[in-house]
């Protein structure tokens, strides 16, 4: 039987996989080293904010700096009086080890509060998983308890195995929604697939319902051009993993000054950051600070 802390850490590890890359296999299995003390960051001496990021992870980050986390990094750097540079690394096994821990960058944007390998800032948004349907179908599904889900085609993003599967994938089985009607989609980018394929399939009518992490759902729904309805999955539907996560910025534990400044900026520039999130159609819930 898992302890409450064990369940929480399993959830935050999976959240890292979803928020940073929607892969994060090494992190989700607890293979990343805990980042403790390290030499002072270069940001203060060089006036250059070095960001760890995945070069292909829209809507979060991209090498063209088109993601919403890229835009938020620009806000932080501007407030610090710094320029921005990136340490690009696909967020697979060894992501933190080869970036933040190696000293090639100073912060990771988009980690869940409570993720142990890093020290986290104040959260800058909170989101959850959503039930996504085509608006013209008028399904009005608000819970996994809806009996129609056992007859409809339900799409869900998957990771590697049951241990690292997404919270809604765990919850479907607990609600008796199993069998050929449940369709798995890639939970990460590779040479062939991307997480937005689940929304593409919904838009084309290949599935009836999609269960998707908020920023992915909002961004790809907007890109599809097909009107879609997003309904937050209720907490009561979860099994052992939460659906909702508060998202923050991760730094080395030793970088207390940088983290304090980031916290101040997140509060001071909240309206500007919220505007960026709205531009990317990121659905948020509750309050973050």
Task: Write structural notes for this entry.
The chain has 289 residues and is an alpha/beta fold. The protein folds into 2 domains: 4-126 and 245-279, D-Maltodextrin-Binding Protein, domain 2 (3-Layer(aba) Sandwich); 129-237, 3-Layer(aba) Sandwich (D-Maltodextrin-Binding Protein, domain 2). The protein is 31% helix and 21% strand. It contains 9 helices and 13 strands. The protein has helices at 4-21, 25-28, 43-46, 68-80, 167-174, 197-204, 214-224, 256-268, 270-279, and strands at residues 48-53, 56-57, 61-62, 83-88, 107-112, 119-120, 125-127, 129-134, 154-158, 182-186, 209-213, 228-232, 245-251. The strands form 3 sheets. Strands 1, 4, 5, 6, 7 and 13 form a 6-stranded mixed β-sheet that branches. A 5-stranded mixed β-sheet has the order 10-9-11-8-12, with helices on both faces. Strand 2 and strand 3 form a beta hairpin. Residues 1-17 and 20-39 have low confidence and may be disordered.
Topology:
Layout: H1 4-21, H2 25-28, H3 43-46, E1 48-53, E2 56-57, E3 61-62, H4 68-80, E4 83-88, E5 107-112, E6 119-120, E7 125-127, E8 129-134, E9 154-158, H5 167-174, E10 182-186, H6 197-204, E11 209-213, H7 214-224, E12 228-232, E13 245-251, H8 256-268, H9 270-279
Parallel strand pairs: 1-4, 1-5, 9-10, 9-11
Antiparallel strand pairs: 2-3, 5-13, 6-13, 7-13, 8-11, 8-12
């Amino acid at each position: 039987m898992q302890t409450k802390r064990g369940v929480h850490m399993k959830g935050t590890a999976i959240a890292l996989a979803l928020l940073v890359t929607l892969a994060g296999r090494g992190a989700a299995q607890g293979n990343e080293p805990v980042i403790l003390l390290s030499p002072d960051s270069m940001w203060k001496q060089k006036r250059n904010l070095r960001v760890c990021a995945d070069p292909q992870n829209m809507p979060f980050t991209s090498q063209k700096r088109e993601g919403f986390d890229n835009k938020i990094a620009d806000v932080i750097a501007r407030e610090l009086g710094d320029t921005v540079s990136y340490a690009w690394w696909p967020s697979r096994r060894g992501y933190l080890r080869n970036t933040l821990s190696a000293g090639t960058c100073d912060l990771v944007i988009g980690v869940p509060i409570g993720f142990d390998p890093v020290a986290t800032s104040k959260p800058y948004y909170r989101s959850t998983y959503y039930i996504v349907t085509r608006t013209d179908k008028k399904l009005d599904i608000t819970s996994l308890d809806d009996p129609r889900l056992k007859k409809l085609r339900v799409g869900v993003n998957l990771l590697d195995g049951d241990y690292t599967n997404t919270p809604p994938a765990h919850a479907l089985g607990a609600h008796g929604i199993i069998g050929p009607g449940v369709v798995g989609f890639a939970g990460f980018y590779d040479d062939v697939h991307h997480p937005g394929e689940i929304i593409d399939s919904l838009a084309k009518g290949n599935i009836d319902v999609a269960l998707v992490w908020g920023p992915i759902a909002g961004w790809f729904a907007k890109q599809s051009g097909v009107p879609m309805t997003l309904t937050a999955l209720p907490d009561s539907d979860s099994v052992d993993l939460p659906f909702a996560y508060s998202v923050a910025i991760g730094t080395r534990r030793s970088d207390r000054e940088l983290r304090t400044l980031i916290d101040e900026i997140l509060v001071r520039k909240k309206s500007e950051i919220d505007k960026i999130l709205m531009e990317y159609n990121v659905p948020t819930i509750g309050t973050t600070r």
